[in-house]
């Protein structure tokens, strides 16, 4: 009788073990299906991203080419402006030297006029007197 009870308990235990394993396998199957579905969605998304990248690659290359051309043109323009600025610097230097020379001549004339103020005043007076005499002489000759 003890053997029969032990056999019954062993059978019952084995049945519980089988039920537990079946439930575990069902749960694992659901998990694997969900993971498989997620992987398929991720693969689809990655393929879409890859296609988008492939479609954009020629456009990006074209933009890079245009940018490179623009930078090259800008560098040439900067070099040209620097060259022309250097050339115009000589002109501005010459204008500055001319201005300094005119200042020196003007200063010299002012000093000369100040030192000969009396003489120049007398000369202007004599010129005015001479012009007045010439006008009177013309008036007498015409009458």
TrEMBL record:
It holds the Pfam family DUF948. The chain crosses the membrane at residues 6-26. Gene3D superfamilies: Methyl-accepting chemotaxis protein. It comes from the Bacteria. Keywords: Membrane, Transmembrane, Transmembrane helix. The keyword Transmembrane helix applies. PANTHER family: UPF0478 PROTEIN YTXG (PTHR40070:SF1). This is Uncharacterized protein YoxC. It comes from Baia soyae.
């Amino acid at each position: 009788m003890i053997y029969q009870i032990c056999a019954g308990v062993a059978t019952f235990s084995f049945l519980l073990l089988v039920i537990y394993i079946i439930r575990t396998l069902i749960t694992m199957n659901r998990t694997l299906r969900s993971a498989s579905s997620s992987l398929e969605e991720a693969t689809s998304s990655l393929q879409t991203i890859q296609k988008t990248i492939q479609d954009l690659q020629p456009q990006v290359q074209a933009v890079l080419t245009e940018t490179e051309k623009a930078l090259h043109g800008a560098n040439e323009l900067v070099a040209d402006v620097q060259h022309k600025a250097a050339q115009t610097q000589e002109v501005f230097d010459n204008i500055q030297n001319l201005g300094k020379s005119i200042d020196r001549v003007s200063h010299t004339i002012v000093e000369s006029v100040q030192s000969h103020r009396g003489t120049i005043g007398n000369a202007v007076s004599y010129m005015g007197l001479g012009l007045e005499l010439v006008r009177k002489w013309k008036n007498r000759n015409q009458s």
